[in-house]
């Protein structure tokens, strides 16, 4: 990270002012590089999340099953699904690369992932 110099130096002449401007220009360049680095790193972080709840068996009770998608800017991430019924509960986790999985995806999983892909496109157009 960067530190700020809190000491205020008195500017007495044109040479001091020119030197100060050069220092500020160098600092701006350093900060620009740091921001670029942080922006590139942030593309790897989870930027999109969506949870849907549903009842896949149309049984009595509430929407106890769910699908959760966690994706980065490139739609890499995971989708977690929990299927609940009165006898048992199952949890599935699937890795995603560019919004695709090597495992079969349920209708609900595909729906959540498609919503997240659209979300990314809408934000890029703004």
List keywords for this structure.
2 helices; 126 residues; 4 strands; rod-shaped; alpha+beta; four-stranded antiparallel sheet
How would the blueprint of this fold be written?
Layout: H1 14-42, E1 48-54, E2 65-71, E3 77-84, E4 89-96, H2 107-125
Antiparallel strand pairs: 1-2, 2-3, 3-4
Description:
Strand 2 and strand 3 form a beta hairpin. This protein has two helices and four strands, in the order αββββα. The protein has 126 residues and is α+β, with helices and mostly antiparallel strands. It has a four-stranded antiparallel β-sheet, covered by helices on one side. It has two domains: 31 residues; 78 residues, no CATH class. 10% of the residues are buried.
Summarize the structure.
The protein contains 2 helices and 4 strands, in the order H-E-E-E-E-H.
Order of helices and strands: HEEEEH
Strand content: 15-25%
Strand order of the largest sheet: 1-2-3-4
Reported for the largest beta sheet, the result is: 4 strands, antiparallel
State the distance separating the first and last CA atoms. 30 Å
Mean pLDDT: 86
- Secondary structure: helix percent: 25-40%
Number of strands: 4
What's the tally of helices? 2
Total domain units: 2
Spatial extent as radius of gyration? 25 Å
Indicate the overall shape: rod-shaped
Which structural class is indicated by helix and strand composition?
alpha+beta
Which stretches are low in confidence, meaning pLDDT under 50 for 5 or more residues running? none
């Amino acid at each position: 990270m960067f530190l700020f110099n809190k000491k205020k130096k008195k500017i007495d002449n044109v040479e001091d002012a020119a030197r100060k401007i050069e220092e500020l220009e160098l600092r701006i360049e350093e900060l620009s590089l740091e921001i670029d680095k942080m922006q590139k790193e942030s593309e790897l972080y989870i930027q999109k999340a969506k949870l849907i709840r549903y009842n896949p068996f149309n049984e009595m009770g509430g929407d106890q099953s769910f699908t959760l998608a966690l994706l980065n800017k490139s739609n890499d991430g995971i989708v977690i699904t929990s299927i609940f019924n009165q006898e048992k509960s199952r949890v599935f986790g699937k890795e995603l690369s560019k919004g695709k999985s090597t495992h079969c995806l349920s209708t609900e999983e595909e729906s959540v992932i498609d919503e997240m892909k659209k979300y990314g496109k809408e934000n890029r157009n703004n």
